[in-house]
Amino acid sequence: RSAVLPFLQVIVFRHQFMISEESMRRIQGLMIELLSDSQVEVREMASSSVSVLVRICGESLALELLDSFSKWSEEPLQLKALTKGGTSGDAASGTDEAAVAAAAEATLKRSKALQTRHAGVLGLAALVATYPYDVPP
C-alpha cells in the first residue's frame, strides 16, 4: 500500500490534464482512505500524497477536506484502554474470559480512534504543507 502512493503522485502530477474527473475522485478517495491505514508508514506517505493532490486540484479541494480532517483530528480518545477490576482469585473462568474480551474490545476501539485522530492530524499537516507560506485570516 505504501509503494503505490509515490507512483500515484507521479502519475497524477504528470497526467493531470488527461485523467478524467471520475478517475481523479477515485484516486482522491484512495489517498484519503489510506490516511487511516493501520500502518503508520502508509499514513505518513498518504499525507504527502494528499498534499500533492491538493496542490494539483486547487484550493476548493483543500476547503472541502478541511472540515473532514478537523473532525477526524477531534476524535475523542479513552484515557485508559484497560481498567483493572477488583476480581478475586476465586472468580470463575467465564468472568475472566469476559473481562479479557472486554479489555480487547476497549483496546481495539482505542486503537481505531487513535488511527482516526492521527489521520486527521496528518491530513491537516498535508493541507499546511500544500500552502506553507499562506496564513489564513
Structure write-up:
By secondary structure, this protein is an all-alpha fold. The protein contains five helices and no strands. It has helices at residues 4-14, 21-34, 40-57, 59-73, 93-130. Helix 1 packs parallel to helix 3 (40-57), helix 2 (21-34) runs antiparallel to helix 3 (40-57) and helix 4 (59-73) packs antiparallel against helix 5. The longest helix is centred in the C-terminal third of the chain and has 38 residues, at 93-130. It is elongated and about 60 Å long. The relative contact order is 0.15. Residues 85-92 have low confidence and may be disordered.
SSE layout:
Layout: H1 4-14, H2 21-34, H3 40-57, H4 59-73, H5 93-130
Radius of gyration over C-alpha positions, nearest whole angstrom: 20 Å
Mean pLDDT: 83
Order of helices and strands: HHHHH
**Beta strand count:** 0
The major pleated sheet works out as:
none
Taking pLDDT < 50 over at least 5 consecutive residues as the criterion, the unreliable ranges are 85-92
Work out the helicity level. over 70%
Structural class: mainly alpha
What fraction strand? Answer: under 5%
Oligomer kind: single chain
Silhouette: elongated
